[in-house]
Write a structure and sequence with these properties.
By secondary structure, this protein is of the alpha+beta class. It contains three helices and seven strands. It starts with a strand and ends with a helix. 25% of the residues are buried.
């Protein structure tokens, strides 16, 4: 069973510029500050010194002391950025979800760019749905929206 959530923002800047800022590893802590039980990103790094690209792995160090590895599944400059949490989800979240996958799309608008960030989580069991839904829809989705608004403020 999966849970899906989404956030979006329109930014009055060219798509390439928005994509570059949104996917710059150094910017991730600046944008994603968490909310409630969802930890903030404190530091992000590409493993083995590689740049973001399909197949590369990024390590995210969070404010709760956890570190999760994200495998980049799609990296299409100016268009799309998809990644999956492949290891490091820490308790109590590991009791709720097996993995999560973020998918960012960037589309032209008159005078700017629409960014849509979708996330899907695979639950450990359908029994955790009520609690997982409360955390994901109540806190994680808001943290996503806040991050997109910080992105807009930074490049807009």
């Amino acid at each position: 069973m999966e849970i899906h959530t989404e956030a979006r923002v329109d930014i009055p800047r060219p798509r390439g510029e928005v994509f570059a800022s949104a996917t710059a590893t150094a910017n991730l802590p600046r944008f994603f500050r968490g909310r409630g039980p969802v930890p903030a990103i404190e530091r992000a790094e590409m493993l083995d010194g590689v740049t973001p690209a399909t197949g590369a792995v990024r390590r995210i160090h969070n404010s709760d002391g956890s570190a999760v590895d994200e495998e980049i599944r799609a990296f299409e400059p100016g268009r799309r950025h998809t990644y999956r949490l492949v290891r490091g989800i820490r308790f109590p979240f590991s009791a709720l979800v097996r993995w999560g996958e973020g998918d960012w799309t960037f589309d032209d608008l008159p005078g700017g760019t629409r960014v849509v960030w979708r996330y899907r989580f695979a639950l450990t069991t359908p029994l955790v749905y009520p609690l997982a839904a409360a955390v994901i829809h109540g806190f994680f989705q808001r943290a996503m929206q806040d991050a997109l608004e910080r992105l807009r403020d930074a490049v807009g």
